[in-house]
Amino acid sequence: MSTDTRWPSPAELRRRAGTALFVRVAGPDGAENRHRIHATPGPRWFEPGSPIQRVHGDASMFVGGLRALLLQSLHPAAMAAVADHSGYRGDPWGRLARTSTFLAVTTFGTADDAQAAVDQVRRIHTRIAGRTPDGTRYRADDPDLLRWVHVAEVDSFLRTHQQYGVAPLDDDEADAYVFQAARVARALGASRVPETVAGVAEAIAAFRPVLGPSVAAREAAQFMLHEPPIPRVVRPGYGLLVRAALGSLPAWALADLDVAAPGRLSTTAATAAGHVGTRAIRWLLAAQGDVPGELVAERERRAAAA
Q: What local confidence, expressed as pLDDT, does residue 195 receive?
């Protein structure tokens, strides 16, 4: 009796690594959800190849998501809600899977499924309330708080896409992305949602007096940066994404998070790390067929070059 002891081929190793990454991000039901999102016929909120699909389908979202979480934590009510109700320490991967699925459904899914996902989140938000450490009341369905969460995400997703995306948007497309993302924010109940890149910058500036350091935000940052619940073998890759996320944050945000601002050489290294990290993710996930936004963007780039 013989036993096959051959090593897996490079293609098989790539496929396995890509599958492991996909399951971590999308959850155990990720493949089923992916098929339902992309294969179910029906009208969508957004046209195929639209700016929001290109941004949200790009590997740069791995950097943008980290940046968004760090930036969002600087709002005391947002951080209190996360600390009190999200279970980010006990179930970080579950939270990531729920967030990534929501983004995928609202961006690529049918209009009915997108609305159902929004309705579910709104129901959850009505049950989340509490007080910040200084005693200020908060509610997760507060329109102003939802606006902060939204602008932090849009700013982060767009900035990292422009730096690390396979096909950065031009100025008009960037405004179109913000305009399209505003539809989802309004559906969730956010108020006074910006619809242009300039409007996002103005909104963040208007929130600055409310934002600031807190013990919870700094603890969350330390957890994300130094205690991620991931196998040691993949921590170097995670570190590349973290360096890129930190390198893209403004100096005031780094100071509030008690993270040293990078110097010129460190900024260059962080940018290089972001490119290496996103290209590696893109290469792994391409074997899964899970990059619709990037595939659309790449087809458009090749068509334009021809």
A: 98
